[in-house]
Every structure is written in structure tokens, then in C-alpha cells.
Amino acid sequence: MRITCPYCGERDRREFYYRGAAVDLDRPAPDAGGEAWDDFVYQRENPAGPIRELWFHEGGCGAWIVVTRNTVTHEMIDVQLASEVKA
Amino acid sequence: MRVDGKGLIDRTRSIPFVFDGVSYNGYAGDTLASALLANGVRLMGRSFKYHRPRGVLTAGSEEPNALVTVGMGAGQEPNVRATMQEIYPGLDARSQNRWPSLNFDVMGINDLAAPFLGAGFYYKTFMWPKSFWEKLYEPVIRRAAGLGALSGEDNPDKYESAYAFCDLLVIGAGPAGLMAALVAGRAGADVILVDENSRVGGRLLAETYEIDGKPGPVWVDEVLAELAVMDNVRIMTRTTVAGAYDQGTFAALERVLHHTDRRPNGAPIETYLRIVAKRSILAAGALERPIAFRDNDRPGIMTAGAVRAYLNRWGVSPGNNVTIFGNTDDIHRTARDLLDAGVHIAAVIDSRHDAPLSDDYEVLRGAQVCGSSGRKGLESITVRRPSGEDRIHTDCLAMTGGWNPSVHLTCHMNGRPVWKRDIEAFVPISGAVPGMVTAGACSGSFSTAACLRQGVEAAEAALGDLSLKAPKTAMPQAEDTPYEISQLWAVPGKGRAWLDFQNDVTVKDIKQAATENFRSVEHMKRYTTQGMATDQGKNSNVTALAILADATGRGISETGTTTFRPPYSPIAIAALGAGAEGKGFKPQRFATSHKATVARQAPLIEAGLWYRPSYFPEKAETTWRQSCDREVNMVRQAVGVCDVSTLGKIDIQGPDAGAILDFVYANMFSTLKVGRTRYGLMLREDGFVMDDGTTARLGETHYLMTTTTAAAGDVMKHLEFAHQGLRPDLDVSFTSVTEQWAQFAVAGPKSRELLNDLLDSAIDDESWPFMACGPISVLGVQGRLFRISFSGEHAYEIAVPARYGASLFDILTERAQALGGGLYGMEALNVLRIEKGFITHSEIHGRTTAYDIGMGRMVSQKKDCIGKTMSERPGLEGSGRERLVGLKPIGESRELLAGAHLYNEEAEPVRINDQGYLTSVCYSPTLETMLGLGFLADGPDRYGAIVKMVDHLRGVTTLCEVVNPVFFDPEGGRVRG
Amino acid sequence: MRFSGLRVLKEGLTGNKGWAPHWREPEPKSEYDIVIIGGGGHGLSTAYYLAKEHGLTNIAVLEKGYIGGGNIGRNTTIVRANYFLQGNSEFYSHSLKLWEGLEEDLNYNVMHSQRGIINLFHSDGQRDAAARRGNMMISQGDDAILLNRDELRRMLPYLNFDDLRFPLYGGLYHPRGGTARHDAVAWGYARGADQRGVDLIQNCEVAGIDIENGVVRGVQTSRGPIRAKKVAMVAAGRSGQVAAMAGMRLPIESHVLQAFVTEGLKPCLDHVVTFGMGHFYISQSDKGGLVFGGDLDFYASYAARGNLPTVESVMEAGMTLMPMIGKARVLRSWGGIMDMTPDGSPIIDRTDIEGLYMNCGWNYGGFKAVPGSGNVFAHLIATDRYHENATGFRLDRFRTGNGIIDEEGKGSQHNLH
């Protein structure tokens, strides 16, 4: 598997750490309530198809990136910096 | 039998080798199979279940029968295909899965019991009496099963792994692959051409085709000569592409030294390659199918393609009196080749009623072979014609049931091949592996001209994708015979007709599976073991599923195939795991004090990837406890020195450094004064404790965080995520400086005395109170000093750039000794912290909350932080939770054991009465008793109560008093000096 | 038809003509008392125990492909009861007891072989954790023995005792642990359920779950609508998609786990050995293949195939731990889809929809749970009460924080369990 880091270019999957769905970027307010927090920490859409997910270029530049990838075919569709997605 | 004038072997070089203890000679270029056939040896192996005598079926890596063990001793190599093993002087091979000998195999008795050993018989029996399964049935089955044997000793050979990158990977160097490589090479593409054989050419080496009027091998040599001078083309023989993976990644294995007994210094026997290719062309050819008929498994019966390969490539006729049987024109090609070579043909049997006739030999049209005889080698066959059955004496049967394109790699990414009726075979669908196109026989085009043409076309398509210009290519002239086949899977009749030769799966087994309602192709496979042998069904799967389709009244297309999985052909674990032997498994990290530590003969223990000293033995000390107790006393009474460099150190700078720390720590850091250090507790977002450590504020916008040794990497990721993923608005950056600083704990009442001896300006309580930090100069070197303590003593950690670490360690050691102190290791460190009730990852093991470890109030109510909201869930605090306590033995037994569980004094020590467990224990020389830290249900509410520690494993029961976990100096007076 | 050695003998002597289908191939009826979505190990055992222990037989098991085609058809066959947290401990203990009588119960040889499992440890801290585990196992009534280095060496002399990167301190030995023939487990349960009247419907994909006013009414399938009083979702690997049909979202992320088998070899490994530092476990099958695996590929996937980095890390672990297996050749690799939950433990529960039940989230430990899971799930479906050995697998534990069963201690990131 190969991932294109926005800073470093195409690199082997071995350089990256996987965290999970990009829902982790959408942290609720402290008072958002139990359901919102349960959704954020535990519940997952878990789609069979394109998913937005978080990877960390641990063996490279140290960027957290948002990868859009198909979970059925492993096709890489898009990559963005997490910091830019959040900005 | 060797045939004069044929073959690509070097008859000037005779090569001696040994098979089953007998010496033979072959020629350079022979495989073990061809050389044995040349010596008249037909019996080469035994089958898996019935131990039937077997000879070669094929001439390639798909060989199911002729599996041998090569070499002796630790490096013996089991299950080697005789068809792929090139001979070399001294090659020592032997047959396997037989006892006492290949010729006389006691387990051959299984063959007589065959009626009772059909498909799935073992699911229906061996159930009574119950205890006999493990004691009798299974051991007997295990001994009878298996093929070759490992030596049982450590593998002595060397293996390597490597990466390769290219524009275009061409898999297979037959006519299609060679043309593709030639076109792409001429266009300047970076090409890797691989072939599993020892020479390129594919079927061109095994047939008598001409290309541009030249013999196939001559044309191959010309192409090879042109490719050899192209810097942009790499040709790798003896290399098998085993798997296709995402984004153009391929796994391949190069068998570097199996064809020789030479082991040049450092050269690997095999190299595992990860090839990343922008585009790929699969030109893997096709595999010929046997036909199922009664007793079609005797030595001497093989595929027609194999017979031609042995004849044309190796100059061997597998028989003196050959019969040919099949359903395609390959029959006649085989007959012509044999006749040209002067081999006698016993009969030519073509199942097609409209088969072509020949002036040179008789063709039995519309006939079928329906049986054979010859116990350890073919003696005769029975032919069935409308007129009746005849027996024909023969010592070799060349059979062809058509060809199966090698679609395997196109299916590794879940592609499914489609059935092509006109060739009675599965062909790949396009696009199944992104970036890959297929060419030649593997796409279902069997003529030489079509292979050459498709090779060119595939290369042109790839070059287009690579934005390279394809040169004009003159198409070589070659045969373009149409492929005609009439369906013939199995010849009807009684008896056993083999499909999966190695696993002994017969037509009857497939039919029985269908009868028992194992009708899905996957059920059939699993029930009968069809296709699960070392060839993974390459020789038999398509035929088996055709028979299943017939038995279940479905079409082949509807029946479908089982799943093709990597690897295409098996790869040694040692190759895939190359480099990991022994210490190579993971990196080793050494602190700057490592050499001095080793010199003092301190036993080392692993801490993550680091090595740390367990204790520093002194003369006359015979047990670790003596050393440990001494080191603890030394710290409590004088001064101890300990290398703590392995702790994670993260440099945090920026105007918002305080803000991000407030966000990642449960407690407050933005209010910390410059020049001060604070203990910090870090939570995961789910509210449980993640890590702890101290963080120092070195400047207005500059902090230095320490983490535990094990969690350093995780904390770094966590910080970067908190910043980039959650708070990119904050202006802050993180740098791991773990390796840049050597850091030593100096602990004990004389710690300041020791330091003041070295510091360029002395410190005192006023300038360096408890938790102070800042820059210092030590013997002229700029460093940092932190007044922090993990022992409860007046203590410091002094840090210098790593290049001074070794030197400072020696000086600190010497000075400490002069003050009646010395070095201490992890054992003493652990005792010191348990005496003080300090936690490590034994306590914050991922299932404990701040509340559980008595730090609930540290979670600041003045701010949000990661984990705060979820830590307030009802289940994570409040009554019933197991919480940190201290435990002291009070009864007869004084022994405490980490991992023991806690129960109420009178309760039976069973799960439902479980009250908690011990996480850390030590003998405290300070308090002269064992001490334990543990988690106990509502523990802090039970100080003074008695609980029972039970260790079932080690048979220890100890009554304990529940106490505050801070056993020693609870007021904390010592740390303030 | 009852299976026995005598029957095999008789059939052998009479040309093996008398064998009958292991199970029928019925057309789906328009209505059942209970519809089970998923004909894998857990679905089949659920049907079996509903029929056997609760007398409920008007049941259909709906399978979109072939029965036993899920993770029970592709795993490393390990059977054990060596958990250390309440909630897991009693459940797996219950399951192991069912395993121990399974051949007799099913009249099917699933080749359950109690060859013993040894979990290696490599430091004092790991030994303490192993002791905590072993003590829990014994207090639950299971077996555990703490081996020191010398004892370990006597049992597994082929391990790398000389220069392993993480030296061997000892092992936690679970003699009753072992392996079983995975496909046979599915077939045995299928045959047993079928014999008791359960309809096994293959090639029948569920496309929708009918719910009216918060009550389940039936399912829509590729072979038409089927009404049902109760519907049980047991479709690990596709749990999320099935739950979505009922408008539910699950705390599950799907990940691929690879496993490997080598060519057949003469016996060389008697036990199941697990090497935690390398995330590696291995045993040898009765056919002679070394069966082994390691960690997840770590990214969400439904592809049922793996990638090379994990292949290599598994092989590397094997090479450092037991260099003698180097010349064994990997014959086949495969990948299964795991329901990964945020605490690594499963979910067996009712849902907010009346008559709709769920069984999912087995992470990569579902095989050994097959008998226990079906047994306790059948109890829940039949009685609407939790089985006494499965009270801890509630869905709401994540929301409340009550009874999170996190054996790995890794928290809510799904792929770390």
C-alpha cells in the first residue's frame, strides 16, 4: 500500500501510523452531552466504500493527514493535511 | 532416456548428484527431474494420503508429485520440486513421506483402505472413546500426514530482503513478456523483467516453434542480447512474483543460490523483493491440465507439455514407448516432436471424433484412456473405443486436457476470472489489479503469434500511461494455429481417477461431496481438501470444479472458482522474515552509560527498545536482592546515581505551549512558573490514564515534557494530533529530544553535596527548591538541572548533551562512591518508588482512571482537557471501582506476589469473590517487610481492613492489611531536604 | 444419519453409496419464529442451541453466501479460555466446557485437540501480568501453569533461548487450550441444527429489516420477504451494514487480519505458542501445515486480503522466536474481516427495537467463542434474559463506562485491541 503525503510525496505504508475515522477531528464541546461524546469516541460509520481517515506520517515528516480511501478496493482517493482540514 | 541432438543442456559438462543415496550423472542445465528421467528413474515420491507411488507430472513449479528433500543436517530443505531444482555437483536429494524407503513404503497400506478413507471420512469417526482423539487417533494422523521434515535445528542459511522500483514490471519472460520488455526497453522505460525459470524463454524453450524463421531459443537469445545492453532493463531469472498488492506493490522471491552448493561470502540463498511498479504486465503463461481417468497417477503419466519440455529443453524422453492422449492439437505436436527425435510412439489417442489424422502415426479418434497398470511405473494403459477396450503396453503417457491461463496474480486483489467457453478455461478480467494488463497465454491466447502481438500491445498501453513514446515495432513472424478443444474432464468408469494428485482427491470424492450437499465450490474444496496441496490446485482445481458443476447440474461459470491467494508459489518464512533472526527483530537502543554499565557486569533488562541495568553487583553479593537492598539503603542514606535518559523527552516551544499542555494534561500547566517543574497526568480521550511524567517550564514559551520510557512514541503522536488535528490554531511545535540529552538521577540526602562538587556555581534550597529547574553549568558544560524525585529523597536529575553523557556518568559514579553512595538500577528504583507509592505502567495499565489511582482531584475543573468529559461517566468513578491501595503482609506468610488476587478474608478464592489484585511488590529494606501496591474494590475506604492475597499459580496465601499506598515518609519531608 | 466408525466401515464396504446430505436445502418459508441473519459459526451455533436447549425449531438461518463462509472459514483455529477480566473469564470458560463435549453433542468430529497453549513472557512486568491472568483462570475453574525459563525450555526446546531480542522469562501454560478443525465446527452445527428442523438458507442475502413502531416484523431478502417474530443479527465482518438496516450505528470498525499456512511438514510443533512481543502465534495442523498469524493490518478494510508489511512483521517474529521454521514455506495467506470494538470485547445484547437482537464485535477472537456465543445468545433470544455467563457484553457499556472489558488496556482506538 502506498500513501501520498502532502509534504513528502508517495511513500510506503510502513512509514505511516493509522488512527481511524476522521470523526476524531470533530471533538464535541465539553457540554455537548453523552450521546455526542459516545458518537465521537466510540461509534463509527464504518463504511464499506470511501472513508475519511487519519494517518500519521510517523516515519517521515510528522504530519497528521486525512486520507480518503476506499475500504473495499483500498483505492486512495484524496489526501489532505489534518491541520488544513481543521483550519 | 537421453535423446541425441535435442535439448539446451551442456553435454560437455557432466554433473554427479545423489538421489536416495544412489549416485547419478546429469548435464549442466538439467533439473533433478530431467536428470532422473534421463537415468530411467520414474518413481520420485509418494502421495499424501494413500502413499501412492508417484513420478513427475509436470516440468514446472506447479509439480505436485516429485517433491524431495535437498541437503542434510540443519539446512535440509524439504518439499523441493524436483522439476525446479537444478542439479549441481554434490546435490544430495532424497524422497520423502515414505518409510522405510521410497520403493517399499509401509504406509502404502493406506491405499488398500481407500474405501474407508474417502472425502471427509475423519469428520464421521474417531469420536469414541472421547479421550482417544488426543491420545491415539490424532498422533497417528499427524505422523502419517505432512510431507517433508524440517531439520528441527536453527536455519543456518542467509536470506535477504530488498526493495525495487520500476516503471514497468513484466512478469514472465516467454514470447509475450520478452516482446513487452523489448518494446518498453527500447522506449526508455525503467523495466524489470522476471521469470521463475533459470533461463528466459518460457514455452519457447520447450517447443520447436520458429520465430522469424529461427528456432525459438535462438530468437530468445537475440532478444536477450538486445535487452542485456539496455541500462534501463533489469532481467531477473529464478525469480517468482508471488503476490500482487495495493498501489502497484508486488512480492517476489529470487532463488539466488539453490542451483549451486557455492555460498560466496555473505551471499543470501534467497532474496525476498518488494517491487513497486508504476505499471505491470502479466505474461505468466498457462498451465496444462491432466485428464482424470482410472489410475491416472502412475509414474510415467505426465502432461504432454511436460513431455515436450523434457524432450526439447532437456533432451530427455520420459519413455521409450510413449502414448499420447488428449483433446487438443497438442497431441499431434507432441507426437511430431517425439517422432522427430526418434522416440517410438505406442499410440495416439484423440478424444475428438473429428481429430486430424496423420500419415506418420495412427490416430485413435474418439477414443479415451480409461485405465492403467504398473505398480511403481506405468506398464500399460487401457483404451476405450466404440468397438471395445484394448490394452496397450507403454511406459509413458503424455496427456493433455487443455490449458489453464495463469490468472492467479490478477485475482490477488479480489478479482474473479471469467469462463471462456471457446477455450474451456478461465481468463482474467481486465482491471482486476490496477495498472496491470495481461498478455499472451495467461489471457487465453495460446498461439505464439498472438503472444508476441499481445506483448507489444501491452507494452504500448503501459508506455502510453507512463507518457513514453512507443517505438515502431516490427512484429516477428510465428505460428498462429487456432486452439481447438473439445471438453473432456474425466473419463467415465469405475475406480479412482485422480484430480489433486498430492492430496489424493479423486473424481469420486468430488461426487461424494456433492451428494453430501457440499455443493458450493468452497465447501467442496474444504470437505475434500481439493486444491489445498502445495500446488494450491494449479493442476486440478478447474477440472474439479467442472466435475462439481456436472454433479450439481450447474454450469462452470455459475459454480465459480475458489479464491486465488498469495503466494503464487510458496515462499520460505526465512525469506519473508529476513534480517529478523536473533537480535535483528527490533532495534536496540543504548543509553550513554551502556558501556560503563556492561563493564560493571550489571544484568540488563529491556525497557521498550532500551536496555537498562537491573542492579550493579558488588563483590561478595550472590543474589540480586543483596545488591538491590544495598542500593536502596544507599539512596536512602547517602546518594545514588541512575541513568534515566530512556524517559521520553519532548521539547515544546511556542507562544501557545502552555495552552496545548493545559489541553493534553489533566492538570494545569500554563500557570506553572518559569524555572519550575510539575508532575502531569495525561488522559486518553476515553477518560482513562494514558501516561504521566514531569514537565518543566524552561522559559516563557518553552517547556520540556518527560514521558515514561514505554509511552514516548505514543505521547509524541498524541501531542501532534492534539495540535494538528484538534487545535491547529495554537502556535506551538514539538520536538523529540530523547536522544539529544543524557539525564541522570542523583538521589539521596547527599545529592546536593555531590552536585555542588561538580556544578560551576553551587546551588542551595533557596536557588533550587523542590521542583525547581533551569540551566546549569557542570564542569564547563551547559546542561539542565531538575529538582525532582522518584524515590522520595532529596533528589535531582541532571541533563547534559548526549555526547557528554558517558563522561558525566563516570564522574557522577566516582563522586557518589566517594560519598558512600553509588549506582542503582531498576530493581532499587522500583523498591524506592513502591515505598513511596509512586505509580508506573504496572498501575496505569490502560484500565485505570485518575480516580482509581487517587488522583481524581488532579483533573482540573477550571479547564477542558483531553479525556475530561469521558472520565466523568458514571462508570468511571464512584463506588465499586478497584482503586489503588498499599498492602502489607500481616499473617504467618509474609510473601507478596504481583499478579496475585485479593479476596475478603473469609471468602472462597474464586472469581465471583474477586476483590482486586496486586500490581507491584517488593521487599523494602527500609521498612523491613514486603510491600505491595494493588487495586482493591473501594480500596481507599478500607484502610486498616484485612484482605487475603491468593496466588493459585504459586500456591501462596497471605493476609494483608490495606494501607495508604505511601508507605514511607508520608509527610514528604525528605524530598524537601 | 448417525456418524460412527462402524458407519464409515459399512459404507466403505458397500461402495460409499449410502451417504446422505449433511443438511437439507430448503426453500425459505414466508414466516419463521426466529430469523438469524448470518450463517457463520456464531449464527449456526445460535440456531443449534435454540433448537436443542430451548425447543425452538421454526427458525431460518439466512446466509448470503455459503454456510461457514465467514471468519469460521478462515482463521487460525485456536480454542482457549485464558482471559483475565470479569465478563470475559466466565464466558470463555463456559465456551471451553461446551467445546469439550462438542464431538459427542454434535456427532461430528470437529477435531478439538487440547494440545495446550503457551503464552510467552519476556520481563518481570509481563510475568506479573501473566500471573494475574493465570490466577484469574484458576479462580474461574480453568487451568493455568506458570512456567519458568527452565520449564519452558524443557517443553519448547526449539525456541530461541540464546539471543532472542526479548529474552524468554517463561510462559503461561494453559493445558486445556488447543485447536479445532474450523470448517468442521460450522458443518457440525449446521448439520445439528438442520436435523432439529432449522432451515439453513444459503445464497439468501438480507437487504432490509422490517420494523414497525419499534417492533421487528421480518426481513427483506434476495429471495423475497420473510416475516419473523424475532430477528438476530450475527454477521461479524458485516455487522455495521446489517445494523444500518435497522437504523443503528455500532461502536465497530472493520479491520483485516491476515493468517498463513505453510506446506505440509512432519510434526515439529506440538503446542500452540504465542509470542506477545512479536504479535505472533503458531500451531501445527493435523495435516502438517504450520498455521500462524500476527497483528491486524491496522487500517479499516472490507477487502479480505492483506498487505506486505504485516506479512513481513509476522514472518520476522517467527524467525526471531523459532529459527527452526525458516525453511517452512508459506503456502497460502488470507485475510478476514474483524469487527473491532473499542474495548476488544464482544457485544451480545438486545437492541432498542423489540424482537431485534445483536451478536457482534468479536475482534479477532471469535472462533473459540463459537459454542459459547451461540449458547448464550440463544438463551438471550429465547428468554429475553442475559445468560449468567454473558452479562458483561452489553452495548451500553461504552456510553456509561460501566463494565468496559479492555484486556489490552488500549482504550477506544478500535485497531489497538
From TrEMBL, chain A:
Record-linked Gene3D superfamilies: Folate-binding superfamily (3.30.2270.10)
GO biological process, one term: tetrahydrofolate metabolic process
A GO molecular-function descriptor: sarcosine oxidase activity
Domain of life per record: Bacteria
Cited InterPro entries: SoxD, SoxD_sf
Matches recorded under Pfam families: SoxD
Name listed for the protein in its UniProt record: Sarcosine oxidase subunit delta
UniProtKB/TrEMBL annotation, chain B:
Domain SoxA A3: 494-579
Keywords of the record: Oxidoreductase
MF annotations from Gene Ontology: sarcosine oxidase activity
InterPro entries according to UniProt: 2Fe-2S-bd_N (IPR042204), BFD-like_2Fe2S-bd_dom_sf (IPR041854), FAD/NAD-bd_sf (IPR036188), GcvT/YgfZ/DmdA (IPR028896), GcvT/YgfZ_C (IPR029043), GcvT_C (IPR013977), GCVT_N (IPR006222), Sarcosine_oxidase_asu (IPR006277)
GCVT N-terminal domain location: 594-863
Pfam family, one: SO_alpha_A3
Domain of life the protein comes from: Bacteria
Domain Aminomethyltransferase C-terminal positions: 883-969
GO biological process terms on file: tetrahydrofolate metabolic process
Family: Belongs to the GcvT family.
Name of the protein this chain belongs to: Sarcosine oxidase subunit alpha
Organism listed in the record: Ruegeria halocynthiae
TrEMBL record, chain C:
Domain Rhodanese: 34-78
E.C. designation(s): 1.5.3.24
Domain of life per record: Bacteria
GO biological process entries: tetrahydrofolate metabolic process
SUPFAM superfamilies the record matches: FAD-linked reductases, C-terminal domain (SSF54373), FAD/NAD(P)-binding domain (SSF51905)
Single GO MF annotation: nucleotide binding
Catalytic reactions of this protein: sarcosine + (6S)-5,6,7,8-tetrahydrofolate + O2 = (6R)-5,10-methylene-5,6,7,8-tetrahydrofolate + glycine + H2O2; sarcosine + O2 + H2O = formaldehyde + glycine + H2O2
Key words, A-Z: Cytoplasm, FAD, Flavoprotein, FMN, Nucleotide-binding, Oxidoreductase
Cellular localisation: Cytoplasm
Keyword Flavoprotein appears in the UniProt entry: yes
Pfam family, one: DAO
Gene Ontology cellular-component terms listed: cytoplasm
Predominant location category: cytoplasm
Gene3D superfamilies per the UniProt record, alphabetical: D-Amino Acid Oxidase, subunit A, domain 2, FAD/NAD(P)-binding domain
Cofactor(s) the protein requires to work: FMN; FAD
NCBIfam families tied to this protein: soxB
PANTHER family attached to this UniProt entry: FAD-DEPENDENT OXIDOREDUCTASE DOMAIN-CONTAINING PROTEIN 1, SARCOSINE DEHYDROGENASE-RELATED
Protein family: Belongs to the SoxB family.
Protein name: Sarcosine oxidase subunit beta
Native source organism of the sequence: Ruegeria halocynthiae
